[in-house]
Amino acid sequence: MSQFLDERYSALAAYVPGEQPQDKKYIKLNTNESPFPPSQAVLEAVNESQVELLRLYPDPDGRVLTKKLADYYGVEENQVFLANGSDDILNFAFMAYGANGRKSYFADITYGFYSVFANLHLSDYTEIPLKDDFTIDVDKFCGVDGIVFIANPNAPTGIALTISEVEQIVSSNPASVVVIDEAYVDFGAQSAVSLVNKYSNLLVVQTYSKSRSMAGARLGFAIGSKEIINDLHKLRYSTNPYNINRLTLVAGEKTIDTQSYYDDNCQKIIDARCYTKAELEKLGFRVLESQANFLFAESDEIDGGELYLRLKESGILVRHFTSERIKNFNRITIGTQEQMEILVKTIKQILEAN
Ligand code: PMP
């Protein structure tokens, strides 16, 4: 740290992304990416003539993509907001509604970036503990006095709330914005997009990074009331109006045109998740009920940190978190069926050698 850094940032604990090692080729089951490439239409659209156009700025309003998303989700164009990954949107939401001593609420075990943004923006935040079974304590999120962030399905547990539980939280907080972070919703949970015209305090955030195979392109979007979307535009135009590059916009448009390819991929992931959960349970693991593209699992036979290391030595990366409540678990991204068979076989060998 330099002596020049503003005092308010010096104590900041920055977000630590999952490893992206370059040393050897791993089976990467640690950052919830898709094992499938973007659709053929996307591959063809990001072509030489699009690269030539990089000399020009992108459309700061991403109008073509906004219209496609609005049509796909059955909302107005002024209810859609685009950003550089959904992290970008979460950052704006904290800035707009939870900064400088205003209150924010999220679970104690959830996406690690919420507390980082909360600290960055000097939010007065409260972490509401998950129940003993790792489900969200819905009642405790009702009638609070500040912005609420809920990942649905939650990460790293994979457990989803029903749409009526989400509605209970949104309807009980009419004076506060409720952000439903649906990064993993396409793998089996119910989206709250259907509620946005009923509740003007609801903001639904989604990403192209998981089900849409575009983590490397950085594209996220949010759907909400036009007033909230306007607030977010104000902050975006006050920081970086060109936050989405041209190639990403084109890829994002073609993705929607080929949605059935992505729906098929989600089904493959769901099938591989069912297979992996059943196999891990046969090996004695406790596996939480996941509606996401990952499983959260622990075993009495091997310590979570130890299993993470043994898997890494065997060329498989999973995600291990060190916080007290979950340190015996590993979060395992669902890859292809073939990758999951290798994972199961490797875990069997590790347990036998243990
Ligand atoms: N929300 C949740 C719950 C996530 O797990 C992630 C991925 N790390 C994100 C948001 C951010 O995803 P991205 O910025 O790639 O859209």
Commentary on this structure:
Helix 6 links the parallel strand 3 and strand 4. The chain has helices at 7-10, 40-45, 48-52, 63-73, 86-97, 113-120, 163-171, 226-237, 246-257, 259-282, 304-313, 337-353, and strands at residues 27-28, 80-83, 103-107, 124-128, 147-151, 178-181, 202-207, 220-224, 286-287, 294-298, 316-317, 329-333. The protein is of the alpha/beta class and 354 residues long. Strands 2-8-7-6-5-3-4 form a seven-stranded mixed sheet, sandwiched between helices. Strands 9-10-12 form a three-stranded antiparallel sheet. The chain has a two-stranded parallel ribbon with strand order 1-11. 45% of the residues are buried. The chain has two domains: 19-37 and 260-353, Aspartate Aminotransferase, domain 1; 40-257, 3-Layer(aba) Sandwich (Aspartate Aminotransferase, domain 2), CATH 3.40.640. Bound molecules: 4'-deoxy-4'-aminopyridoxal-5'-phosphate (PMP).
